């Protein structure tokens, strides 16, 4: 399936509306950059694919209800090449690193941020606390994709030219969400956006529609040209970072080009040929590329090849008869052949699943007592797990009928599992789930409707089981994932569409209490106790079941033209985020042209 599904609904709609044209192959002498046949030197040009699937329409970080299109904001990880954030999030260690700011400190519910005094916008004006305050305020005033963070913020004020205080909302305090803003919100110049507001007016829709095609920003690149076949960014040689100890130089590529391909096959062909340097496309059996001689590498040289970033879950409708029994939900989860899911549905791009709410990465595993969870997790041996699942159902009184399907009290364990048609890896995964049901006396039929129907079924609770991914990496991970998956404090009343969280509508007061405590806690020992208990509650009740670990980014590189890409355990601590996301921007500075 195409990556567009991960880019947010607003971007997806733009992609569907845009014409998609296959970009011409580049030559050794240079790539056509448009505009009268001008070319870009190949040894100064870094090519990407797999992020854009349609024409760039704007470079506006303040659009309504979604993300801006073109190598700019992305809700899961900040792209630092045009706009920049105060801090950079590193998914490898779960830490925030200074960028436009130098430090942040908590004092009760107040967060004080000290800015880097050397930062300048591309028009030469220095960045000050007034720009930071205004950037936060614009999101508050204009209903952007990030306006929701203001439910956790009481105020953002400047105490001097280089100090900003973010005061938490005492009625809804969440330390993690406030820290997330440090790595999510782009800082823009107040003088420029004051001008734009005067020009277009204060209507949020007018602000959202402003294309901002010549953005004034702090980043090392600016838009050069774009059309339906490509987006070209040019390096800003006056970039403030070249004189800062945070970088100390300019990134080696003078140009960054993202070609727009008509489909994955076209993009893969260009990548294999060395016409693309870094690919974010899903490539089936990626190892076959280097086995056939291509200079292709992945962040991890062997399976699972990619770094885990999300957990697609099987979400149970806990209000449905039968699925309201934790024994039934646990039994289904226990019976799934996770090895087949990993190998067949995910091409081996997932580590073996261990039941919990946590990703198998050090930053998350360190938050739980792994040994304390083991009594609540099932055997990794499939035959043993299915035997235990059958016993669990027997003990719960679910008896097999003549047709082999279990029933109790007039309720028959017959359900439907759904996800959108065309999402091939998820479709294949649900077929494995259906087979698991047969092994334990539960009838599970797969259902693959159009995406809009799947979304409506989730929102309205008109499903038995659906696949869904909760919360990706960020400063609020894994809290955000857990909150969305099993938190119920914001669930609307039954009968009212649920567009927020916890589509299975599992409700547990202790889980809500733990989630609230984690959001404000800073003591590592206390946090470990809370996270361990929350995972035990999850494993006992199984309101949803993780099915695989899916990469946040399919970070695959071709070293024919550029070398120096980050790799796991190379000592750089640079994550596989395409050299343009979050702390991954550091990787851009290590590139060397062949």
- Can you tell me the overall shape? globular
**Total domain count:** 2
State the low-pLDDT regions, or none: 1-37, 66-78
Q: CATH H-level name of the largest domain... which superfamily?
A: Periplasmic binding protein-like II
Q: Write the CATH fold name of the largest domain.
A: D-Maltodextrin-Binding Protein, domain 2
Number of helices: 18
- The CATH first-level class of the largest domain comes to Alpha Beta
Walk me through this protein's architecture.
With 594 residues, the protein is of the alpha+beta class. 29% of the residues lie in helices and 19% in strands. The strands form 7 sheets. It has a 7-stranded mixed beta sheet with strand order 10-11-12-3-13-24-14. Strands 15, 19, 20, 21, 22 and 23 form a 6-stranded mixed beta sheet that branches. Helix 9 (338-345) runs antiparallel to helix 13 (424-439) and helix 16 runs antiparallel to helix 17 (524-541). The model is unreliable at 1-37 and 66-78 (pLDDT under 50).
